[in-house]
Amino acid sequence: MEHQPNLGRRRFLSIASITIAAAGLGNTAVLKAATTETKVPATGNGNPISAGFEHIKQVNAGLLDVGYAELGPQNGRTVILLHGWPYDIHSFADSASLLAKKGFRVIVPHLRGHGSTRFLSSAQLRNGQPAALALDVIALMDALKINKAIIGGFDWGARTAGILAALWPERCEALVSVSGYLIGSQKANEMPLSPKAEQAWWYQFYFATERGRIGYEANRHDFAKLIWQTASPQWQFEDAVFERSAASLNHPDHVAIVIHNYRWRLGLAEGEAKYDALEKQLADTPFITVPTITMEGDANGAPHPDPAAYAAKFKGRYSHRNLSGGIGHNLPQEAPQAFADAIIEVSNWTK
């Protein structure tokens, strides 16, 4: 079920570094009508490692030489899937395969600072701010001559996908966003949270220190594994599953990108002036007008907003999916069929 949100006068809320300015809903019945509850079989709990991506392509796009996986027919409707931190393209290995079998052309890029994606210039700031990540995707679409695509993502990837949908709706055919509306700003991040909520962001404050930067540089493997375990506490992933993605973090710019991203959110690192106009637009928490499905797992151990806080940010056709069965933060990898089904469903809304 879905709804066309009624956007009247709203009180806006801010939520930490994934800060959203999301409209509070006066009519909770509207949200209930828009929400689907889905029980997901525990396929992600202890499942063997999937085949993954056999071949990684490279293309010069904007500031980067982008490494990406591509599955499905060249003439299929294009889907671009964006991973988060500390994950990589293999979060979508199974869902991408499912979509390719349905005739979609699926593009899964390594974000800057991950895998085989590299900066073209050694002089370029290793910038992790949200606008820069979004423009990376626009540049990739231009390089691959993709005019418009269905965009899906989680964590950093969901934020990037949301930015694309909000600022470049002409390039975004439809959106699937895990944890909903994640667009934020430095100004909104100035608002302190409750002690319990702040505790959940411990790594952000750790990264704000030089000790944290050095610690992540020295221990990124174990650090990433800890985040996987705490963000998806019921997902009993095999070591081989983690190691395959952890290899993508062994990147010369990875630490610099991650540290800059989290310090920028808190106003502790400068961005680049060329992104100022875009960040100003994002600070106004723009509405998303493209058809959208948001998703959330019942065992997401990472900080994430309540769906009721962001439902009214979506002005187009919209639906929310709650997944039960121990599904955590890395939803596309833990529940690949449900994620692929959401992409297929939202694609049907635009036919």
From TrEMBL:
GO terms, biological process: acylglycerol catabolic process
Pfam families the record matches: Abhydrolase_1
Molecular functions (GO terms): monoacylglycerol lipase activity
Residues in coiled coil: none
Descriptive protein name: Alpha/beta hydrolase
A GO-annotated cellular component: membrane
Keyword terms, alphabetized: Hydrolase, Membrane, Transmembrane, Transmembrane helix
Residue span(s) of domain AB hydrolase-1: 78-204
Residues annotated as transmembrane: 12-31
High-level lineage: Bacteria, Pseudomonadati, Bacteroidota, Sphingobacteriia, Sphingobacteriales
